Amino acid sequence: MNLKGRSFLTLKDYSRDEIEYLLNLAKELKDKKRKGILGDSLKGKNIALIFKKPSTRTRCSFTIGCIDEGGHPEYLGSDDIQLGNKESIEDTARVLGRMFDGIQFRGFSHESVEKLAKYSNVPVWNGLTDSYHPTQILADFLTLKEQFGKLEGLKLVYVGDGRNNVANSLLIGSTKMGIDITILSPKSLWPQGELIDVCKKYAIASGSKVEITDNLEAVEGADVIYTDVWCSMGEEDLAADRIKILKPYQVNDELLSKTGKAHTIVLHCLPAVKGNEITYEVFERFSNVIFDQAENRMHTIKAIMVATLGNK
Ligand code: CP
Ligand code: NVA
Fold first, then answer.
1. What gap in Å lies between CA 42 and CA 130, rounded to an integer?
2. Looking at 57, 68, 269, 299, which residue is catalytic?
3. Domains 11-133+297-309 and 136-293 equal at CATH topology level
4. Nearest ligand 2 atom to alpha carbon 58
5. 136-293: what CATH class?
6. What is the full per-residue pLDDT of the chain (312 aa) written as tens digits?
7. For this structure, is 106 an active site residue?
8. Residue nearest atom 3 in ligand 1 by C-alpha distance
9. Which residue ranges have their beta carbon within 6 Å of ligand 2?
């Protein structure tokens, strides 16, 4: 599989086999790191890390992943560069593309990361936009493979804000990989119809099922319940309204009892607001797998960089 030179903006651009390849590579890199074996695939490569929103996991994963493979990461925060303010994205992209070998971008509009990829002429990796969070989903899927030994045929129910970046990317990734996905949220927070239509086509190809519902009983049979914050970065003003409409969709013991399965696991991309989207008790009970999921950000992000930019 040759992914050299490719950007990673959304999972829409990657086939099932390519996603599988990245997951296998991540597992290989994780196993090697456990044994103390690091690579030099990014030796001589300079990687720009543009963050217009804060980050713990994504920033640290790109930084450590890059250094583990012998590359040099450079953090460029909102106050450090003028991207999109005093300098256009097109111009910043052309400058960075002449100095760096790859660029990670976390920001607001998805158009920004698309422009960056178009004008920089180097691989650009989406570390989260308002619309998508594709690197997160690779970590989620690696975690599911570790837990269940497979992806195909699992039932994953995402509960909460069904039209945020994580929900959108889970919908894309799950339908590509043959995971049955349910988006469980109030109607006002359902994913856009256009995205649902695209994902239904992926689901036909992979043999998975897609369900978008506001009925809590839909968690029945879930192998995985997944949640995320009720207000994404930049939406803090909407907190009061979101808490009101999402309260019935909290991941708590009552909801979990509705799955009817003893082995259901709970995932959370983090950071978590305990007491809102998930109770403290449920979070702590599933903390081992949730922090495996967080650790897997690093191995999967390293795999993306190695696959698209690495020397071998
Ligand atoms: N899950 C995730 O993207 O975490 P950060 O915001 O800390 O990067
Ligand atoms: N939906 C969340 C994800 C954080 C990783 C946000 O955008 O803030």
1. 29
2. 269
3. yes
4. 5
5. alpha beta
6. 999 999 999 999 999 999 999 999 999 999 999 999 999 999 999 999 999 999 999 999 999 999 999 999 999 999 999 887 899 999 999 999 999 999 999 999 999 999 999 999 999 999 999 999 999 999 999 999 999 999 999 999 999 999 999 999 999 999 999 999 999 999 999 999 999 999 999 999 999 999 999 999 999 999 999 999 999 999 999 999 999 999 999 999 999 999 999 999 999 999 999 999 999 999 999 999 999 999 999 999 999 999 999 997
7. yes
8. 58
9. 128, 164-166, 228-229, 232-233, 269
Annotated catalytic residue within 16, 133, 268, 299: 133
CATH superfamily, region 11-133+297-309: Aspartate/ornithine carbamoyltransferase (3.40.50.1370)
Pocket test for ligand 2, best of 158, 166, 183, 268 (most atoms within 8 A of CB): 166
Q: Where are the domains of the chain?
A: 11-133+297-309, 136-293
